[in-house]
Design brief:
Elements lengths: L17 E7 L7 H20 L8 E7 L4 H14 L3 E4 L3 H14 L3 E3 L15 E3 L4 H14 L4 E6 L3 H14 L5 E6 L5 H10 L4 E5 L6 H9 L8 E3 L8 H7 L8 E3 L7 H14 L5 H20 L3 H6 L6 E3 L2 E3 L1 E2 L7 E3 L5 E6 L2 E10 L1
Parallel strand pairs: 1-2, 1-3, 3-4, 4-5, 5-14, 6-7, 6-8, 8-9
Antiparallel strand pairs: 10-15, 11-12, 13-14, 15-16
């Protein structure tokens, strides 16, 4: 591997902590709840690493930067963290932000373990510097498309905003459903108000509406409009990107928050490690941890293992991705090259389609699993 020279100030000489840069959306328009859960997982794992003696006697330290769902801000944060001398980058939830961070990390020769972003094309070209824990969007969303077909939904409308991520999701659904007799009807949310969405659903005889839009808005307004339209009493609302995962969804929508299937990346039954981490995360967050919190924990678990085995040299960290074998909270984590994906990929974390139980919205029902 060709190793770009480190910029001035990139090497720590005081022998104190081993630093990991953490990219997390903590302010709007970022998905703040997701960022809080991701950070909670990262921080819990760092605390446990340090309680167990750190990295060969040196404490592990997170250097956190808020990306606020802004790709340019994330790229600037990568530059700053590289100058500060972090050994590696971790985190990020939003795909378009993670893509900008990955491109910058690749250019600088800074290892980046992406926790949560799923966009297949996380980098324009294959790279040795970036690895990912979250499943690729094509993998998860094809499982969601299988769920739609098994539930009898052949005419699927997608209310979509403009972004690379939403466009990729719509394409995955269309490509997977069309050969099986399904139809995807795209509704451009740049041009439609929630009430107009209802009219389009009726006119197109859609049996399902998928929310490929931001949270909380316009997702919440669309759900409210559809739920109150008597013509659409039988339509299923879905949210493959996971908007209903977090408690804010139930708070904003009440009873309307239930029965909206979404993707989450958890096994049907947690391992003893996963169960222990779940308890600790619940205490830390004062609410049930989402799969995003587990992704954060697993990210640090992998990086700590690599740092213990290979040290804090950036090139050696990146070279170690194919040799990783770590027991995470959701299974054994190993990275490989996956067709069509330019980063080292964990293939695959467990994938479920779940929803909030109408009888008990704080409880999730597993509807379909990979």
């Amino acid at each position: 591997m060709n190793t770009p020279p480190l910029p001035p100030g990139a090497e720590r000489t005081d022998g104190s902590s081993v630093q990991i840069g953490a990219l997390v959306p903590l302010t709007r328009p970022g998905w703040v709840e997701a960022g809080q859960h991701l950070l909670a997982g990262l921080e819990l794992a760092v605390r446990e690493v340090n309680d167990a003696g750190g990295i060969v006697g040196r404490p592990l330290e997170l250097v956190v930067r808020d990306t606020a769902a802004d790709p340019q801000r994330a790229a600037a944060a990568v530059d700053e963290l590289a100058r500060l001398g972090v050994a590696a980058l971790a985190g990020e939830y939003h795909s378009v932000v993670a893509r900008a961070a990955a491109a910058r990390a690749d250019a600088l020769g800074l290892p980046f373990l992406c926790s949560s972003a799923v966009l297949d094309a996380l980098t324009e070209q294959p790279t040795e510097w970036v690895a990912r824990l979250a499943p690729a969007q094509s993998h998860g969303w094809q499982i969601y498309a299988d769920f739609l077909l098994s539930a009898g939904h052949g005419r699927v409308a997608v209310a979509a905003e403009s972004s690379v991520y939403w466009a990729a999701g719509a394409r995955i659904l269309r490509d997977h459903l069309a050969p099986r007799g399904g139809t995807v009807i795209e509704l451009d949310m740049r041009a439609l108000a929630p009430a107009a969405v209802c009219d389009e659903l009726v006119d197109n005889r859609a049996t399902a509406l998928l929310l490929l839009v931001g949270h909380p808005e316009p997702a919440v307004s669309i759900v409210k409009a559809v739920r109150r339209d008597q013509r659409l009493a039988e339509i299923m609302i879905g949210a493959p990107a996971g908007q209903p995962e977090f408690p804010e969804w139930a708070t904003l929508l009440g009873d309307d928050s239930a029965a909206i299937p979404f993707l989450r990346y958890l096994p049907e039954r947690l391992s003893p490690l996963g169960a222990r981490v779940e308890t600790a995360l619940r205490e830390r967050l004062a609410e049930a941890p989402s799969f995003v919190a587990f992704e954060g924990y697993d990210t640090v678990a992998v990086l700590a293992d690599v740092l213990r085995s290979h040290g804090a040299d950036r090139a050696r960290i990146a070279e170690s991705w194919p040799r990783v074998a770590v027991e995470g909270t959701r299974g054994r984590i190993q990275f490989s090259r996956t067709p069509g994906i330019g980063v080292w990929q964990w293939a695959w974390t467990p994938v479920q389609v779940v929803d909030r139980d109408p009888a008990e919205p704080d409880r999730f029902r597993i509807l379909h699993a990979s």
